[in-house]
């Protein structure tokens, strides 16, 4: 019979127990022992839960106190020298110093850089390596986890980040070749695998997600060298795991590596099954990733069963394992905890636990159990009914999208004409100053919001409090002399949730937490149905704010791509269709803002870049619809209405054409940390529209002085036309304190005044 397994489980705990334990330890409120006890309790709970859900084999070493890439770096002693003194005193403190920096006992260490794990919203710590780097086995985490599982009665499969992906995900601080370090790294890998074999592990899983990326010949050669070396050593049987996409042009490579099993993602790339089966050497196990580890929907038996049957027919039950497409790290733990969701909304959903249960049913069906067949037929019928249920399909939305004219993406005139019109109507000074939208979210505001939600603060009192905050923000901006004002976003908890709550087609979970990094989690809202706007969402706040001042007030919206990127998106429609629906809803908001006298409207797209597909070849299609959706949102407004967009820390070199095609009148970007380097792409492209390169790093409590901002602005003026340049911070100010913000914005306005004098 086919085995049911999975390659990793969420670590944080249903009630975010790990988060609480970590933060308590970091505050010094509890001991390391307490934290490790919580971690052990969670591992046991999750193994038990998965086994009860029907898993035959559980993974181990998928758990991490902070991040599995950091675990791997520490495991192989890839510890930059600055952290070593902390490790010398306490291993766990050393580990957390790498994760979050360390300011204690005369140390002031910054953390490792963090970056996104492929195209997920999980962030990993980037190991820092250097030429001549030595590696050695440090500690015994994978072995300890294996023994811990066995003690509890589970024959677990240790999961390791594979050596080549580990190197490709690392960076060298001296610019030397990462892959050149492979041979040095293999020795401790081999040691470790030997230890696991000695301890009785019959399988080990080597995660090589980089196999779904565009690789060059050197990377491919590294794969061959690495896996040949492991094959020559004494190791458990090796399962090579690819996920997040098709193996594509790396299939021949993957299938040629001397391993005992191959895991492939058949959710993102079901079409690769035939080629995989053709390429798979005899005797190899195929771990078929058929249930989506990236999303919260039940699988469709009509899609999954044919894949499994085909694989079963070709390789038989013994060689076929059933698994989620990737680690379940990216989905919440248990739908059973969502007691507030009505059953009809809940029925098509599956969290980690339910995904393992689904796999069990598929395995039972392959084995011919009639109940399993009945269950799958029922599941398919349910999904079919759901797909047409009221609330899921909105005929008006479908019709509007179907009949949408291509004209909808157009502004009335080209940028040069709009520019002149806007200059006349807005009458801004040269080098106008503005901010990105949010002002500090004070404790008072957060408490009031919580009280309002809990029904302890009535609507009127809450509204008055927010109005008072808007007024304070407006008066402050007038006082220091900013040119384009914002209302400060005090009414928003989160830039996606705020809109999601007002749109049809969205639902919210109670405990749908997903780890973002370390102890940080997000609770992505769920798009289950067609997106429609019930009523104006922001006009109330923007017009109130505008009524307080003669300066232009900038309306503030989250763009369609960002709304999508930070939500769980329905899987019964193409993402681009959902995005177009979102764009139409936001377009109506743009028009309502315009009609209410808001002449400047910002549509934030900080997540546009992170939506890029993993393979270059897929970029143009994504960028085309992403840009189109932005243009639908902004389209049709008067020439006098100035459309802004904002994009956070992101490289622009390879997407500059798309950014230019968005054709926002003004774009603000995050540039202060890179000291304006990120402007290069715009300069090379001769980007013609307005641009505000950030001069204030809002991620740091440090307040830059006027001279520092002037220096950045001089750099910008050296390469941009003065008529293009706007002056603003890098991003919104919601995480900063008022004292810092007052000073920093004051310096910013002073730098603008001085620069105007120099023009
Ligand atoms: N308007 C948002 C703010 O200022 C933008 C946030 C973001 O880019 N992440 O908070
Ligand atoms: Zn931003």
UniProtKB/TrEMBL annotation:
Domain Cobalamin-independent methionine synthase MetE N-terminal: 6-314
Membrane-spanning parts: none
GO biological process, one term: methylation
Any one GO molecular-function label of the UniProt entry: 5-methyltetrahydropteroyltriglutamate-homocysteine S-methyltransferase activity
Catalyzed reactions: 5-methyltetrahydropteroyltri-L-glutamate + L-homocysteine = tetrahydropteroyltri-L-glutamate + L-methionine
InterPro entries in the cross-refs: Cbl-indep_Met_Synth_N, Cobalamin-indep_Met_synthase, Met_Synth_C/arc, UROD/MetE-like_sf
CDD domains, per database record: CIMS_C_terminal_like (cd03311), CIMS_N_terminal_like (cd03312)
Chain sites annotated for binding L-methionine: 436-438, 489, 604
Binding site for Zn(2+): 646, 648, 670, 731
Protein residues bound to 5-methyltetrahydropteroyltri-L-glutamate: 16-19, 116, 520-521, 566, 610
Cofactor note: Binds 1 zinc ion per subunit.
Enzyme class at the top of the EC tree: transferase
Pathway the protein takes part in: Amino-acid biosynthesis; L-methionine biosynthesis via de novo pathway; L-methionine from L-homocysteine (MetE route): step 1/1
Family: Belongs to the vitamin-B12 independent methionine synthase family.
Protein name: 5-methyltetrahydropteroyltriglutamate--homocysteine methyltransferase
Organism annotation: Rhodanobacter terrae
């Amino acid at each position: 019979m086919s085995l049911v397994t999975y390659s990793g489980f969420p670590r944080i705990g249903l009630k975010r127990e790990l988060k609480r334990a970590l933060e308590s330890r970091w505050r010094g409120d509890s001991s390391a022992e307490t934290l490790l006890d919580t971690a052990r309790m969670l591992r046991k709970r999750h193994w038990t839960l998965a086994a009860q859900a029907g898993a035959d084999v559980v993974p181990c070493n998928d758990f991490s106190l902070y991040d599995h890439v950091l675990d791997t770096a520490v495991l192989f002693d890839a510890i930059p020298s600055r952290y070593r003194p902390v490790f010398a005193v306490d291993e766990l403190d050393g580990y957390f110093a790498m994760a979050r920096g360390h300011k204690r006992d005369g140390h002031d260490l910054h953390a490792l850089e963090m970056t996104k794990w492929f195209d997920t919203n999980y962030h990993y710590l980037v190991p820092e390596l250097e030429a001549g780097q030595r590696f050695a086995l440090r500690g015994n985490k994978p072995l300890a986890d294996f023994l811990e599982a066995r003690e509890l009665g589970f024959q677990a499969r240790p999961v390791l980040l594979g050596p080549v992906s580990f190197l490709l995900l690392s960076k060298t601080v001296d610019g030397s070749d990462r892959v050149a370090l492979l041979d040095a790294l293999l020795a401790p890998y081999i040691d470790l695998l030997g230890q696991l074999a000695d301890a009785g592990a019959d399988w080990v899983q080597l995660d090589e997600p980089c196999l779904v990326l565009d690789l060059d010949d050197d990377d491919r050669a590294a794969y061959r060298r690495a896996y040949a070396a492991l094959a020559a050593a004494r190791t458990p049987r090796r399962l090579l795991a690819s996920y997040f996409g098709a193996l594509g042009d790396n299939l021949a490579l993957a299938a040629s590596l001397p391993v005992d099993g191959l895991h492939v993602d058949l959710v993102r790339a079901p079409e690769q099954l035939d080629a995989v089966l053709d390429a798979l050497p005899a005797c190899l196990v195929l771990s078929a990733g058929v249930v989506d580890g990236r999303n919260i929907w039940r699988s469709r038996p009509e899609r999954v069963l044919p894949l499994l049957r085909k694989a079963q027919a070709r390789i038989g039950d013994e060689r076929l394992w059933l698994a989620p497409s990737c680690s379940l790290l990216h989905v919440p733990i248990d739908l059973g905890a969502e007691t507030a969701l009505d059953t009809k909304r809940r029925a098509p959903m599956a969290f980690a636990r339910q995904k393992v249960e689904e796999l069990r049913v598929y395995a039972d069906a392959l084995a011919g159990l009639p109940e399993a067949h009945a269950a799958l037929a029922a599941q398919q019928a349910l999904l079919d009914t759901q797909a047409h249920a009221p609330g899921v399909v909105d005929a008006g939305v479908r019709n509007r999208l179907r009949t949408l004219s291509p004209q909808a993406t157009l502004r009335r005139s080209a940028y040069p004409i709009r520019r002149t019109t806007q200059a006349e109507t807005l009458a801004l000074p040269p080098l106008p100053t503005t901010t990105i939208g949010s002002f500090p979210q004070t404790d008072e505001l957060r408490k009031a919001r919580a009280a309002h939600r809990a029904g302890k603060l009535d609507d009127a009192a809450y509204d008055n409090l927010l109005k008072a905050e808007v007024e304070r923000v407006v008066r402050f901006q007038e006082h220091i002399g900013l040119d384009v004002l914002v209302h400060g976003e005090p009414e928003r908890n989160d830039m996606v949730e705020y809109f999601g709550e007002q749109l049809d087609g969205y639902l919210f979970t109670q405990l749908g937490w997903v780890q973002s990094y370390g102890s940080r989690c997000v609770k992505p809202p769920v798009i289950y149905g067609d997106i429609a706007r019930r009523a104006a969402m922001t006009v109330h706040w923007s017009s109130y704010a505008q009524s307080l001042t003669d300066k232009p007030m900038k309306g503030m919206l989250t763009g369609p791509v960002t709304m999508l990127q930070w939500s769980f998106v329905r899987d019964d429609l193409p993402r681009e269709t959902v995005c177009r629906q979102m764009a139409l809803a936001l377009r109506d908001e743009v028009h309502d803002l315009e009609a209410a006298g808001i002449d400047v409207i910002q549509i934030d797209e900080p997540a546009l870049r992170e939506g890029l597909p993993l393979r270059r070849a897929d970029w143009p299609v994504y960028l085309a619809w992403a840009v189109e959706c932005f243009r639908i949102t902004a389209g049709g407004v008067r020439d006098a209405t100035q459309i802004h967009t904002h994009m956070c820390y992101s490289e622009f070199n390879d997407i500059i054409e798309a950014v230019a095609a968005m054709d926002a009148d003004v774009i603000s970007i995050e540039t202060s940390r890179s000291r304006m380097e990120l402007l290069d792409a715009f300069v090379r492209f001769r980007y013609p529209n307005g641009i505000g390169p950030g001069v204030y790093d809002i991620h740091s409590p440090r307040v830059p002085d006027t001279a520092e901002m002037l220096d950045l602005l001089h750099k910008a003026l050296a390469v941009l036309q003065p008529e293009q340049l706007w002056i603003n911070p890098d991003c919104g100010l919601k995480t900063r304190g008022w004292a810092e913000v007052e000073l920093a914005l004051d310096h910013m306005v002073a730098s603008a005044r001085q620069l105007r004098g120099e023009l």
